[in-house]
């Protein structure tokens, strides 16, 4: 009987090998290329293109758009306005914006995947192709999104802004239907809180059971990171190399982005830790909205401050594993990570300055260890969650680290399903 069972398992394993779990990749902050269509958009300079005549124009990442003369045009194209009275987001009038490379990483009419996808995911894609035969657009899909936004507008589009979750849900459903296998979602960085919101608030328990085999969450800033505070104060290059994204490139975009609020340090986790030191006052995580108001539009001002109660407060309620989503929680450590920003002058209206000194602590270079460890230290314990750490590896390094790639191959090997049966 035992032998028979074992052999049934063998057959099962062979069958499973034919149809592997479709893999859906959800990138992090700024990890999705963006394109716009403009129709008489109000631009800050006469030289900015105002109309694209029905065509879509890539704006992120585009070397031309980064030229000094063009940077104001780019900032305007990426403007995001939030109206607290109506709870609606909007783009600059006359601008439509969408992510580029849905499903296969390629813009329509192009044969090569976008540079940004190549930079971040080629190592993973190549390894999964070599070892398991995964092919982009066939059984591995990229799900780029408007990274300015948080879960609220992904769930509910307003004025043509948002709506990612509906498309993502359909992409997963189609992939599951085509393969007959439940999907694995792989998210990185901001993609992790973005998926946490999706699983908890957008889809049902039954939907998750029917469609999700597992979730590999890489480098999740579960309760934010202190680096976001420096984005408000002086801008930062998003952890990307300077040849791809110059320093300060999009500070004006960052400070208005609702996604920034989701990755600002959360008072529930950071408590009374001092994050910013100035001569006359120190600031903790719960002081951040007030700090933004104090500085004004330069740091997002009232608009961004008003998003904190809406997005950061209720975030605590989502800090537990989504039911029916077996989770691989992987992160890296051992890279010095900003913990306190010290300034020799006080924060006043219009403040815009890099820190005079930075105190570093433990983390992955971008996200503090405290936030990376939330799942194992603070979330309710669950047998559906497996945590793995990769020492001496950075926030972006995790996407090409040999140990991580091997772990991913092992995780996705179809034989895993059979093991459950033995
Ligand atoms: C930021 O929001 C303000 C409204 O508070 C708006 O005037 C400005 O254009 C926005 N800028 C960007 C770059 O989103
Ligand atoms: C990727 O998908 C788009 C949209 O479906 C299609 O136009 C394009 O030809 C595809 N690219 C490749 C390389 O298959
Ligand atoms: C701010 O924090 C620093 C370092 O923790 C401390 O030395 C200083 O006294 C504090 N300043 C104020 C105004 O509380
Ligand atoms: C910002 O909000 C405060 C009250 O919260 C208000 O007093 C102030 O006028 C507002 N500033 C702007 C520029 O809207
Ligand atoms: C960390 O990685 C660097 C560069 O790859 C290497 O030189 C160093 O020895 C490593 N340190 C540890 C503790 O593994």
UniProtKB/TrEMBL annotation:
<dbReference type="Pfam" id="PF02450">
    <property type="entry name" value="LCAT"/>
</dbReference>
<dbReference type="GO" id="GO:0008374">
    <property type="term" value="F:O-acyltransferase activity"/>
</dbReference>
<dbReference type="GO" id="GO:0006629">
    <property type="term" value="P:lipid metabolic process"/>
</dbReference>
<protein>
    <submittedName>
        <fullName>LCAT1 protein</fullName>
    </submittedName>
</protein>
<dbReference type="InterPro" id="IPR029058">
    <property type="entry name" value="AB_hydrolase_fold"/>
</dbReference>
<dbReference type="InterPro" id="IPR003386">
    <property type="entry name" value="LACT/PDAT_acylTrfase"/>
</dbReference>
